[in-house]
Amino acid sequence: MLTKFTVSNFKGFNKELIFDLTDTKRYEFNSECVKNGVVNTALVYGHNGVGKSNLGLAIFDLVGHLTDNETIESRYKFYLNELSSSDLAEFSYEFMFNSDNVEYRYKKKDHKTIVSEDFLINGVLLASINRADDEEALFKFKGAENLRTSITNTNLSILKYIKNNTELENNDVNRCFLKFFEFVNGMLFFRSLQENIYIGLEKGVRDLFDYIVEKDSVTDLQMFLNRAGVDCKLTVAKELDRDVLAFDFNGKAIAFYNIASSGTNALLLFYYWFLRIKEENVQFLFIDEFDAFYHHDLSALIVNELKEMGIQFILTTHNTSIITNELLRPDCYFFMSNNRIKSLANRTQKELRQAHNIEKMYKAGSFNEE
Fold first, then answer.
1. Which terminus of the chain has fewer Cβ atoms in its 10 Å neighbourhood, N or C?
2. Whether 91 contacts 80, CB under 8 Å
3. Pairing outcome for strands 41-46 and 333-337
4. Lowest-pLDDT choice from 32-36, 166-170, 263-267
5. Long-range CB contacts (within 8 A, 24+) of 230-234
6. Among 82, 12, 6, which residue's Cα sits nearest to residue 48?
7. Do residues 226 and 327 share a domain?
8. What is the CATH number for 60?
9. Within this chain, do residues 82 and 191 fall inside the same structural domain, yes or no?
10. Left if phi > 0, otherwise alpha if psi is -120 to 50, otherwise beta: which for 30?
11. What's the pLDDT tens digit per position in 313-325?
12. Which neighbouring-strand residues pair with 252?
């Protein structure tokens, strides 16, 4: 699980932004939203332009240099904060795998150029490099003793170098290292606004309609849409000798993409990734503006569907109707402002209880003071 993330001098984050998922309270309701003291289900709020989307891009920055999975270079084109005097962006991640704590810190000039890296397990430094001082790499993994330590390729992460070029001994430390890579390879970011984009999990683009038809999931998709309030019947029709997903109007088929609304298309995208999450080893999910086209009842349904899957996920939204203790709890709702992000529970001195109407408190400005 991701437990803490820190970033500075990246896009809109001039000063250090700390996203601490371990600063939780002892609420007795919706206990499944927090696992081992770490927020497993988070909703992030904030005014337009405050950096919610950039938070997701910042968290997923490591996917670009640790994996061969999908990333979106255009989203990382303007990388450094223009107001900063530093020419390096700094990232720090903390994870918990079973009882092990993992720290990964690095600095970059841009999305590709890695200047320094440090990797620690339970406080022990196991890999390090600082190219700014022309230092050679340090490796302390059992099985990595014979690796060359002069790594001049600034696009090559030393962690990826270790992973791809060693047969590590089978011990607790190395298993934790591989668990870290399993987590990063299982990270998924997606959004559906003007365009559908994603980061992580795999490389390349798949056709959503083809995938659902190939998986024989048309009936299941229909049931999902019906639960979401879309009264429809689906079928598979032929179009230019190709099977296509279609709406069935008493035997007359019309291709899905021809008449589906923006909200229904957003649901289709969610369902596609919902299938992928169930079938593959997704470890961490970030959906930006997850309910931009949804009615508030549908937003709550989507959150509950994700909660049942048990994976750690973060959603950004502007929908205040789902700020309710019936869905999550005050330490799982976060508010971003002034380069800070804190849970509602930590933005007030008042003791919040299950009976409180926290949406009403939010709208009244009760969480504006830190």
1. C
2. no
3. parallel
4. 263-267
5. 230/264, 230/267
6. 12
7. no
8. 3.40.50.300
9. yes
10. left
11. 999 998 888 999 9
12. 249
